Amino acid sequence: MKKTSIKDIAEIAKVSTATVSRVLNNSPLVDEFTKERVIKVIQQLNYKPSLIARSLIKGKTHLLTLIVPPTPNFFSAFYFTQIMNGISDALTQYEYRLMIYQPHGYDAKLGYPPQLEEFQMDGLFMIAPLMEDRLVKHCETEKIPTILINARSHILDWIDLNNQTASIKVIETLVGLGHKKIAFIPGLMGYNTVARLEGYKEALQKHSIRFDSSFIEGGDYSLESGARAAKKLLALPKKITAIYAANDLMAIGAIQAIREAGLSVPGDISVFGFDDSDAARFSQPPLSTVKQPFYNMGKRAVQLLVERVEKPEMPPRYEEMEGEVILRQSTKKI
Amino acid sequence: MKKTSIKDIAEIAKVSTATVSRVLNNSPLVDEFTKERVIKVIQQLNYKPSLIARSLIKGKTHLLTLIVPPTPNFFSAFYFTQIMNGISDALTQYEYRLMIYQPHGYDAKLGYPPQLEEFQMDGLFMIAPLMEDRLVKHCETEKIPTILINARSHILDWIDLNNQTASIKVIETLVGLGHKKIAFIPGLMGYNTVARLEGYKEALQKHSIRFDSSFIEGGDYSLESGARAAKKLLALPKKITAIYAANDLMAIGAIQAIREAGLSVPGDISVFGFDDSDAARFSQPPLSTVKQPFYNMGKRAVQLLVERVEKPEMPPRYEEMEGEVILRQSTKKI
DNA sequence: TGTCCTCCTGTAAACGATATCATTATATAT
DNA sequence: ATATATAATGATATCGTTTACAGGAGGACA
């Protein structure tokens, strides 16, 4: 009992397979009467054309692949899921399907994962690849239709947060609350960290606050690294009144360190995070943070990628989205 | 400049396409010498066989699809991501690839999403479908290789938490801490809620504590519903000393309600959650809860599904996994 | 009546692999 | 020398579609 194919339909409807195919693709050059007859047979047999066969001859699979970083500590679930939901929802408008690929030995010697090349997919979403990612390089040189989400490139399309203005908003919020001695805990060096630091400096300058490099203490996006950094910052001779961390987890680590030092949040020190993760909502006190429009980034990424797939020669397109400051109880006026 | 195909290889290596195919599938009936020659050409041209073409003739796509519920409020990101990570990691051992499908109008009239049928995938993962899910019914009657994760069926394979023993562990932990008046906030009625309630009753009986139906106050897995339920429970004439909620979010809602009533957690009332979500870790106080082995469920699901795909006629297999009690600061001895 | 269009339909060749069967070359047995 | 087995290879059909091309039917027009 094999699947019914276009041949079966043709036979029963007493037409050629070509005609059935024309009906399927509702070509105008088929008689109304025969069209109706064919459709009836199709419905009776509950026939569904094979996308595999169609892909083979058309040379397009209508498959897009989402490359997921191998969940390092800084890559949290909510981040990914929101983007995926955005992609998934937007895809319902298009005739494309979504595959997931999560490289395992990411930094291993292997360059481009063979599985991807073999399965001719039409385009790639890449979430937050690192700057030196080999896969990105490969896509750039091979001109594989790709859209970077939360990363940048001169050759590929991308969507990213405007990290600089987001940072500026944070600092202006803190300055507005009366803070002047504001420390920053950047994450691993990457596109966004650089831009956030830039924004931090710019906002300070705008408000005539002198930049003090001892107020910068890096982390690796983990909770522990946030705690470590905060500990050092608290030991500084000049007393800080606020800490701005490059993600929520480090901010929460900072809160822990501040408590351990016998100080309170936001009583003694205000803390700002970044990302608006679950952790921010449920931390104690709830964390002021920056919300990235992940869902919309995913949605928009679909549009850009599909257009790229259909017009591979278009010049690359870039899009910056704005972050939104979410004020909760970890920050206070002084 | 089209993709290089098996024909090109054959031509350059001066063999037939059949031989190239044999080399690709390392058949033993090909001379060592020609094999070497063919391989060299393959590498030179960086040829990768088309999985599409292979799928067409083999009748197998080597594509598995993960059906994701349309993120209702009770379906949180960490839940899904952990399962997906498990699946994704396990898949590296097999020659299968992963697709994602997230139905949108889930409860709408449409039964089986056409996109799935058209793209012949070999098997389906379904996460926590509801009992009356039409897609599940479809898979059951059409004998589509499917594994349910966190759900059950008489016909399909499944992996689920042993909800009853998990519940028993929770109650025994609370009883061990001296609690006797323990309320339960179940979630929406489904497989797991029923079993958890069963376990709750069984554990009470075992410790000769009379079951009191007024101690049961249902919610819908949302934070607000947890708060509402707790409020009612606190208003009971008989004073409870502990609340066990069927998920973390409702537990956190309960904590908020308890605070609003002027009581403290765990000072006056101990609270237990379920799932070990991020929210549990970062709530204040950190929430005692039950950790479900999501990652391992995903991993194991791959094994079961692949075996099912390869032997469709096997009798269905079921697997129960055990939950682990995570003790944090929301529970206290009395 | 013959020519040219238009409209519809069918035939057959793709797409890129695998699988079946046939064929050749070589080795071994008689 | 002939028959037979074995190893390596090639020719060709096949999977389920789409598509270029070729026709046939019928009408319009000279």
Keywords:
homodimer, 334 residues, 434 Repressor (Amino-terminal Domain), Rossmann fold, 3 domains, 6-stranded parallel β-sheet, 3-stranded parallel β-sheet, 13 helices, 11 strands, elongated, DNA-binding
Describe it for me?
- Two copies of one chain form a homodimer.
- In chain A, strand 3 (123-127), helix 7 and strand 4 form a beta-alpha-beta unit.
- By secondary structure, the first copy, chain A, is an alpha/beta fold.
- The first copy, chain A, is built from 13 helices and eleven strands.
- The first copy, chain A, has three domains: 6-49, 434 Repressor (Amino-terminal Domain), CATH 1.10.260; 63-161 and 294-321, Rossmann fold; 163-292, Response regulator (Rossmann fold, 3-Layer(aba) Sandwich), CATH 3.40.50.2300.
- In chain A, the strands form three sheets. Chain A has a six-stranded parallel β-sheet with strand order 2-1-3-4-5-10, sandwiched between helices. The first copy, chain A, has a three-stranded parallel β-sheet with strand order 6-7-8, with helices on both faces. In chain A, strands 9-11 form a two-stranded antiparallel ribbon.
- The first copy, chain A, is elongated.
- Strand 2 (97-101) of chain A pairs antiparallel with strand 2 (97-101) of chain B, so a sheet runs across the interface.
- The structure holds a DNA duplex (30 and 30 nucleotides).
